[in-house]
User: Which sequence fits this backbone?
């Protein structure tokens, strides 16, 4: 195989246009052919930005539990214990059914989530809300203009002005339990660009960079 | 180092809580990647499941010198989804409304320019003839096979194969 042929094959593999047989052969060859593995890695890197063209969508709520069952070991649980997912995307129908039996423990409010999108509909932040706490995580970390900060806001349905939920640290990870409002389906969550220290007017003063609407986790 | 890259390091050390944290951080984006290829929630869930099993086993192979953790994860999920599509004989409706009539409008590609790499790829894609560009995006994003792309773009199969091959070659030169 010439270097040109090898590279063309690697490119078609990464693109996804090889059939099942050629794919299996190539994966086998990559185990021993370092140059081929290198060519594939190069194409993965070149084309990776195209992944952003796919629209984000919440997976089924029970998927993590299924994955844990497959992987086994590690965090093994006793059979009588309900495998509560430790985060918001889980719970779901099974939890709702079980909650009826767990009389000494009030069922948690259904978790909510949204993906904050840019003006070009690109995913920027994942927001989850459960038991009154909002958690924010950057999906595609990016820098912001020097000397500016990002401020998080919530706009309950029917409200005329948003409520500030605080400034977002540079890490992009943020958790807040608002005192005067409660996360609910339909609530708008937005992030604006503000001067250091945040808006002094109680309303966003800079452009809204990212926006999304809370809905029940699992419904997309 | 991104959060995802740090988590991959911990997963390589068999830290199951790190896998769960990574799932929480990335599963919405990755399920979207699988949905774009399979257009079926059950099949896309299978792809994310299979992909994450792979992530758990291969996390030590992630090499930060060769791209971002997000890109590496996306590539594993894509290949898991493509494997499922191949097993189904790629009998996936390509007239799906979610693909739209003109799936690869030039303006849509602007959305990949957030990163420096994305901006360069966008510029190089823009230099390709329209149908070469469409073929590449239909294959990569929507998992279409050569015959499906030929049907969709109303071009002979041989032409599509040659154009995609030439398009990839041009991209490589442009990005070098």
Assistant:
């Amino acid at each position: 195989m010439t270097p040109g042929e090898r590279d063309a094959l690697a490119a078609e593999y990464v693109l996804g246009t090889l059939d099942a047989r050629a794919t299996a052969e190539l994966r086998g060859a990559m185990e021993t052919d370092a140059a081929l593995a290198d060519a594939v890695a190069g194409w993965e890197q070149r084309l990776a930005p195209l992944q952003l063209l796919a629209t984000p969508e919440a997976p089924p709520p029970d998927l993590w539990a299924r994955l844990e069952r497959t992987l086994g070991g590690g965090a093994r649980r006793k059979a009588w214990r309900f495998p509560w997912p430790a985060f918001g995307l889980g719970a779901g129908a099974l939890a709702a059914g079980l909650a009826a039996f767990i009389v000494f423990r009030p069922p948690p409010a259904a978790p909510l989530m949204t993906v904050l999108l840019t003006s070009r509909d690109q995913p920027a932040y994942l927001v989850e809300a459960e038991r009154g706490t909002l958690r924010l995580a950057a999906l595609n970390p990016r820098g912001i203009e020097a000397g500016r900060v990002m401020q998080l806001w919530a706009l309950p349905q029917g409200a005329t002005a948003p409520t500030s939920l605080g400034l977002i640290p540079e890490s992009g990870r943020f958790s807040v339990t608002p005192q005067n409002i409660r996360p609910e389906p339909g609530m708008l969550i937005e992030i604006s660009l503000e001067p250091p220290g945040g808006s002094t007017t109680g309303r966003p003063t800079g452009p809204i960079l990212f926006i999304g609407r809370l809905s029940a986790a699992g419904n997309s | 180092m991104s959060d995802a890259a740090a988590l991959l390091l911990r997963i390589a050390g068999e830290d199951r809580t790190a896998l769960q944290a990574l799932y929480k951080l990335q599963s919405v984006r990755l399920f979207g990647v699988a949905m774009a290829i399979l257009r079926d929630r059950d099949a896309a869930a299978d792809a994310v499941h299979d992909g994450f099993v792979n992530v758990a086993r291969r996390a030590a192979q992630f090499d930060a010198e060769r791209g971002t953790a997000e890109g590496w994860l996306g590539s594993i999920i894509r290949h898991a989804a493509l494997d499922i599509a191949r097993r189904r004989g790629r009998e996936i409706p390509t007239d799906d409304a979610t693909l739209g009539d003109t799936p690869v409008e030039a303006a849509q590609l602007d959305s990949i320019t957030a990163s420096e790499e994305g901006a360069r790829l966008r510029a190089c894609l823009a230099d390709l003839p329209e149908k070469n560009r469409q073929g590449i995006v239909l294959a990569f994003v929507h998992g279409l096979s050569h015959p499906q792309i030929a049907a969709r773009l109303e071009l002979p199969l041989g032409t599509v194969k040659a154009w995609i091959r030439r398009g990839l070659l041009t991209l490589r030169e442009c990005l070098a």
Summary: Chain B is about 70% helix and 0% strand.
